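Structure (tokenized):
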């Protein structure tokens, strides 16, 4: 899941114009899937403290940012998941600042 999200981010950042438009719908689905994987880990007693949760939430937020755009209300649920991860939130904020406009 992490490789899929990282690959999407690389493809999106390397695309231009219509290429990015085509990738947005893929990103919307992928962001939800990655976020769901993080939630699933949180909900299991065996994995509820896994460091992978933070990684998945960070990647989901970054993919959602690219797919939805920085001013989108859809970002709220992805951003909310980062509040308990100050390092992840700071990393996401830097990504968001770099994608304004």
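Design, position by position:
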């Amino acid at each position: 899941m992490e490789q899929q999200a990282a690959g999407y981010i690389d493809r999106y950042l390397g695309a231009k114009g219509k290429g990015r438009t085509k990738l947005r719908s893929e990103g919307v689905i992928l962001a939800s899937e990655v976020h769901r994987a993080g939630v699933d880990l949180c909900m299991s007693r065996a994995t509820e403290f896994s460091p992978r949760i933070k990684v998945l939430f960070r990647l989901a937020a970054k993919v959602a940012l690219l797919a939805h755009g920085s001013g989108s209300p859809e970002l709220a649920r992805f951003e909310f998941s980062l509040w308990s991860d100050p390092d992840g939130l700071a990393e996401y904020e830097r990504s968001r600042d770099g994608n304004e406009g």
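Reviewer-requested clarification: The chain has one domain: 2-98. The chain has five helices and no strands.
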